[in-house]
Amino acid sequence: MKYLIDAYAWIEYLEGSKLGEKVREIIVNNDEIFSLNITIAEVISKVRRKKGNIEIAFEAINSNSKTAEITPEIAKKAGLFHAEIRQKIESFGLVDALIFTFAKEIDAKILTGDEHFKGFKEAVFMK
Fold first, then answer.
1. pLDDT score of 115 more than 80
2. Which terminal Cβ of the chain has fewer Cβ within 10 Å, N or C?
3. Across the strands, what pairs with 2?
């Protein structure tokens, strides 16, 4: 199965939490693990604010997943999805829309603990 790992899941993985252990198991047991470049930015920001080691975080993501860039077409689709979903979930972020759209594009499950993805069949919750 393909997985797209979001920032929430990567942070749990890096912290070595029980939820992070679930992330590790999925990484070890699946060949197709993806992360968006923008997710790297989210994780690095969080790690820096927590005074963690950004190089370890950066290397963990890059060595355990295929990083992907957002194409203009995916950006367009994500923008349309974001405008639509915000009518239902006001706090749904643009990065979440990009993650959702990319996952659908490559037929992957989103590995997350982010409540914004609650109820989405494309999401696999770690909680």
1. yes
2. C
3. 32
Asked whether 74 and 67 are in contact (CB, 8 A), the reply is: no
> Are 14 and 52 contacting, i.e. CB atoms less than 8 angstroms apart?
yes
Nearest to 4 by CA among 105, 118, 99, 116: 99
Token pair belonging to 72 = 């203009």
Where do we find the tokens 């979440």? 96
Tokens of 122: 């494309």
Q: Can you give the residue ranges of every domain in the chain?
A: 2-125
**Is residue 31 pLDDT above 90, yes or no?**
no
**Tokens 């295929």, located at residue:** 66
Q: What is the second-level CATH architecture of the domain 2-125?
A: 3-Layer(aba) Sandwich (3.40)
CB 82 within 8 A of CB 64: no
